[in-house]
Design goal:
The structure holds two protein chains of two kinds.
Chain A (H helix, E strand, L loop, with lengths): L11 H17 L9 H18 L3 H15 L4 H16 L14 H4 L8 H7 L1 E4 L11 E4 L11 H13 L18 H20 L3 H20 L6 H14 L4 H12 L12 H14 L9 H14 L5 H19 L15 H24 L1
Chain B lengths: L14 H14 L9 H18 L3 H15 L4 H16 L13 H4 L8 H7 L1 E5 L8 E5 L11 H13 L21 H18 L3 H20 L6 H14 L4 H11 L13 H14 L9 H14 L5 H19 L15 H22 L3
Antiparallel strand pairs in B: 1-2
Classes of the chains: A mainly alpha, B mainly alpha.
C-alpha cells in the first residue's frame, strides 16, 4: 500500500480509539502469555474493537484492524464459533435467568411480544427473558425482565458481519446443534449451555490454532508498517513520529524479532541542541508531547490530557522486555515532568530560553538523524 | 465630549455589564437579522440594559447607553408602549385565574391594599389569584407572582414619566394602550396579549422601532471608534481593552461599521515578537497581558482569562469577515491558554522575552497599527 504523510495523521479521537486497540494487543499479541480461555475473551473483545475502529479516521490503523478481521474471516466456521463464544459468555454471566416449567406460566401472551421465551438462546438473541420474582402469594407468575442482549455483531469486515447476521437469522428460533446447546430445561440450564459452548469453542481453537494464527498474520503487517516508516526516504513529520511511538509499544507484544527491532530503535542515540546524548525514545516522547500539546495543532491536549494519555499507556503496557522497560521509563519520566511543570512542554524548565517552535524543530531534526542510523542498522 | 484616557478604563466589576450590553447589540444591532416581536423584546431587554448601566462606571459606555435612552424618550408614546410591551410579555408567560364574583375572593381577609380585579393589577403589584386546592374549590387563593413592572432608570426623565403614567393608570389603565382583562376562563390572558401585540406592532411600524434608536446609538458608537483611532494621545492597555469591546459591538452595526471593523482587524501590525501579525491578534494578545498583569487592575488567572474570552465568544452572533477574524483570534488564544497555563505571563514562542518587554512591544505595535488605520479613514 502506497502511503503518504497524511496516512499517519492522528486526531484526538483517533488517539483514544488506538489506545483501546493497543490494549487488545497487550492481551492477545503472539508474544504475550496465553490468557485463560483466551479464545472466549478474544471473541468477547471484538465488539469493543469494532467500536474503536468506528472512532478511527487514521487510515493506517484502520487498515491494520481491517487486516485482523479479514484474516479472522478466512478461518472456517469463525462466524458460528463467534456466536457460540458470545453465547457461552452470556450463559455464564446470566445464571440467574429462569425458564418456566410450564407454558401456561408465561405472561408473554399478555404483552404481545413478537417472540416466545422458550430458551436461553432466544434471550441471548433478543435481550428479553424471565426472572423468578420473590415469591408472592398474590402473583405466582414469572415476570418479564429486560436483559442485556447477548448478541453483538462487530462491524469492520462487512462480509463477516453480513454472514453473522444471516447466520443468526437462520438460527432463529433454533440454532445449529453442531454449535449451540439450546437449553430449555429449568434447572442448571445456564451451566449446561455454557459448558457445552466452551467445549465447542476450545476444540475449534485447538484445531485452528486460534487466536495465535491470525495474530501472527496480523503482526507481519504491523512489522511491515514499522519497517516502511523507519526506512522511508522522505522526511517524516511529527504526526508520523507520534504514530511510531504508538506502533512501537504494540510491536513489543509480538515476536522476539519485533522486540529486537524496537530495542534497536529505542536505544539509538538521538542528539538535539537542547538534549545532547539522548536516546531515541526520550526524544520521541518529547516530540510526541510537543505535538499533542501544540495549541495550533490538531490534537491540542492540555497538560492534564497528556498526563492521562501517558498514564493510560503505563496502565495497559504489560510487556517486560528490555525495549518495553526503556519505553516505560521514558513515559514515567515524562509524566513526572508534566506533573512538576503545568506548562511543560510548552515551556521547558531545562531550556527556558528556547521557544516552542525552536525546540520542536530541533527535536524533529534529532529524530530524523536517529532514524537514518536505525535504518542502516535494521537493513543488516 | 472631552475625554481622558481614564474614560476608557473598564473595571472588573463592570465587565459582565459591558458583555451584557454587547449581547443586547448582538440581537438589536441594525446589522443583525430582525427577530420576531422585536419591539416587545426590545422593551423587555432594556430592563437588564438598565441594570447593567447601574453597575457601570465607565463614562464612555454610560454615555453611549444613555444616548440610546435619550433617543428612545424622544419618540411619541414610547413610555405607554414600553408598559404595553411588558404587559404583553407578562400575559404570555402567566396563566392567571380571575374569580367571576367578588365574594369568592379571600383578599378581604388578608388585608391586602388592593383588590384583584384584573390582570393589570396583578402585573402592577405582583399578587394574583390561582385556583385553590382541590378540597377547597370555593375560594381563590392569593399567590405571589413575580412583579412584572420594571422601569428602566438610565434616562431619569423617562423613568419619571413612566412612574407618573403608572400612578395615573392605577387601577384603570388607558384603554388606548392596555386591555385590562377581567373576564375569566382558560386562555383569558391571550386577549390582552393579542391586543398589546397589535398596538405595539402598529407603533413600531409608524416609528421605525427599534431600528430608529439603534441607528441613533450606532452613530455615537461609530463616532467613538473614529475618535479613538484618530486620537493623537498615546494609548495604554485600558484603551485597547476598551477598543476590543467596542470593535465587537461595531460588527453588529451598519455595513459601513462592519467595513470599518474589518479595516481595523486586518491591518498588519508587526511587533518585535510577532512580525506580520494582524491588528486583532496583537489586540487580543495585549488584552490578555492586561487582564493577567499581576500588578494591574484585573489580576486574572489563566482560567479567568479563558472565561473572559469565552464570554465574548458566547455573545458574538455576527458572521461578517471582521467577526470571523475576531472569533478566529479568540479561539487561537483560547487554545494557547489551554496548552500553557502561564500564557501570556510567559510566551512559549518568545520564552526569552520578559513580560514588560512584550507588553511594551505589543502596545507600540498597536499604536503604529492604529496610526496606519487612521490614515486610511475618510478625512
Amino acid at each position: 500500500m502506497q502511503t503518504t504523510a497524511n496516512d499517519y495523521k492522528l486526531s484526538a479521537a483517533d488517539l483514544t480509539a488506538i489506545r483501546g486497540w493497543m490494549k487488545f494487543l497487550e492481551t492477545f499479541g503472539s508474544g504475550m502469555p496465553p490468557a485463560e480461555n483466551a479464545i472466549g475473551k478474544f471473541f468477547a473483545a471484538l465488539p469493543q474493537l469494532s467500536d474503536n475502529y468506528d472512532e478511527m479516521t487514521n487510515s493506517s490503523y484502520r487498515w491494520m484492524v481491517e487486516t485482523l478481521f479479514f484474516y479472522l474471516n478466512e478461518v472456517p466456521n469463525n462466524q458460528e464459533v463467534s456466536l457460540t463464544a458470545q453465547y457461552g459468555d452470556f450463559c455464564e454471566k446470566n445464571m440467574h435467568i429462569s425458564l418456566p416449567g410450564d407454558p401456561k406460566d408465561y405472561v408473554t401472551t399478555a404483552i404481545d411480544l413478537p417472540f416466545e421465551f422458550r430458551s436461553y438462546w432466544a434471550i441471548f438473541l433478543f435481550g428479553y427473558g424471565y426472572k423468578w420474582y420473590p415469591k408472592s402469594e398474590s402473583d405466582p407468575l414469572i415476570r418479564i425482565v429486560r436483559h442485556e442482549k447477548g448478541i453483538k455483531i462487530p462491524g469492520v469486515n462487512e462480509n463477516r458481519r453480513n454472514a453473522i447476521i444471516a447466520l443468526s437469522n437462520n438460527w432463529d428460533p433454533i440454532p445449529s446443534k453442531d454449535f449451540i446447546v439450546d437449553q430449555t430445561s429449568m434447572y442448571g440450564s445456564g451451566i449446561l449451555a455454557m459448558e457445552s459452548a466452551k467445549k465447542v469453542v476450545a476444540d475449534w481453537a485447538s484445531a485452528h490454532n486460534m487466536p495465535q494464527s491470525i495474530m501472527i498474520r496480523f503482526e507481519a503487517q504491523q512489522r511491515l508498517k514499522m519497517k516502511d516508516m523507519i526506512g522511508a526516504d522522505r522526511v517524516l513529520n511529527a504526526d508520523e513520529y507520534l504514530f511510531i511511538f504508538h506502533l512501537m509499544i504494540s510491536l513489543c507484544t509480538a515476536t522476539n524479532a519485533d522486540r529486537a527491532t524496537v530495542l534497536t530503535i529505542v536505544k539509538e542515540q538521538a542528539n538535539s541542541i537542547e538534549y545532547p546524548n539522548e536516546t531515541f525514545i526520550n526524544q520521541l516522547i518529547y516530540l510526541s508531547l510537543l505535538h499533542a500539546g501544540n495549541p495550533k495543532g490538531d490534537i491540542r491536549y492540555s497538560n492534564l490530557m497528556m498526563q492521562d494519555m501517558l498514564k493510560g499507556m503505563l496502565a495497559f503496557i504489560k510487556t517486560t522486555d528490555e525495549a518495553s522497560i526503556a519505553i516505560k521509563a521514558s513515559i514515567e519520566m515524562s509524566t513526572h515532568m508534566l506533573h512538576a511543570n503545568a506548562a511543560y512542554p510548552m515551556h521547558d524548565m531545562y531550556n527556558p530560553d528556547k521557544s516552542f517552535s525552536t525546540r520542536f524543530t530541533d527535536t524533529l531534526a534529532a529524530l530524523e538523524d536517529g532514524r537514518k542510523i536505525i535504518k542502516t542498522k535494521l537493513k543488516k | 465630549m472631552k475625554t481622558t484616557l481614564d474614560d476608557y478604563k473598564l473595571s472588573p466589576a463592570e465587565l459582565p455589564g459591558i458583555v451584557g450590553w454587547i449581547a443586547f447589540l448582538e440581537t438589536f444591532g441594525s446589522g443583525m437579522p430582525v427577530i420576531s416581536d422585536a419591539t416587545r423584546e426590545f422593551f423587555v431587554k432594556i430592563i437588564s440594559v438598565s441594570d447593567n448601566f447601574s453597575r457601570m462606571t465607565n463614562p464612555s459606555y454610560r454615555w453611549m447607553i444613555k444616548s440610546m435612552f435619550t433617543s428612545l424618550n424622544s419618540i411619541t408614546n414610547n413610555q405607554q408602549i414600553s408598559l404595553a410591551s411588558q404587559y404583553m410579555d407578562f400575559c404570555n408567560r402567566n396563566d392567571i385565574s380571575l374569580a367571576p364574583n367578588d365574594s369568592e375572593y379571600e383578599s378581604v381577609s388578608i388585608g391586602m391594599p388592593f383588590t384583584f380585579t384584573s390582570y393589570w393589577v396583578t402585573f402592577l403589584d405582583g399578587y394574583g389569584y390561582r385556583w385553590g386546592r382541590r378540597d377547597d374549590p370555593g375560594l381563590y387563593q392569593v399567590t405571589e407572582y413575580h412583579k412584572e413592572l420594571n422601569i428602566p432608570h438610565v434616562d431619569e426623565d423617562r423613568y419619571n414619566a413612566i412612574s407618573a403614567l403608572v400612578s395615573s393608570w392605577k387601577p384603570t389603565p388607558s384603554n388606548e394602550f392596555i386591555v385590562a382583562q377581567t373576564t375569566t376562563g382558560s386562555q383569558a390572558n391571550k386577549t390582552p396579549a393579542a391586543a398589546a401585540k397589535k398596538l405595539i406592532d402598529d407603533w413600531a411600524t409608524k416609528n421605525n422601532m427599534p431600528a430608529k434608536v439603534i441607528i441613533d446609538f450606532e452613530a455615537n458608537q461609530r463616532l467613538k471608534m473614529n475618535d479613538l483611532l484618530k486620537s493623537t494621545a498615546a494609548f495604554n492597555g485600558d484603551v485597547y481593552f476598551f477598543i476590543l469591546h467596542l470593535l465587537i459591538g461595531l460588527c453588529t452595526g451598519t455595513a459601513a461599521d462592519k467595513g470599518l471593523a474589518l479595516s481595523i482587524v486586518k491591518e498588519i501590525t508587526s511587533s518585535v515578537e510577532y512580525e506580520n501579525e494582524i491588528f486583532i491578534n496583537q489586540l487580543i494578545y495585549l488584552s490578555l497581558m492586561y487582564l493577567g498583569d499581576p500588578k494591574g487592575a484585573y489580576k486574572y488567572n489563566n482560567g479567568q482569562r479563558q472565561a473572559a474570552l469565552r464570554d465574548l465568544l458566547g455573545v458574538m452572533k455576527t458572521t461578517d469577515d471582521a467577526s470571523i477574524a475576531i472569533k478566529a483570534s479568540i479561539n487561537t488564544n483560547l487554545d494557547i491558554l489551554n496548552a500553557d497555563p502561564s500564557y501570556p505571563m510567559q510566551d512559549m514562542y518568545n520564552p526569552d522575552k520578559g513580560f514588560n518587554i512584550r507588553f511594551t512591544d505589543t502596545l507600540a505595535a498597536l499604536e503604529d497599527g492604529r496610526k496606519a488605520i487612521a490614515a486610511k479613514l475618510p478625512k
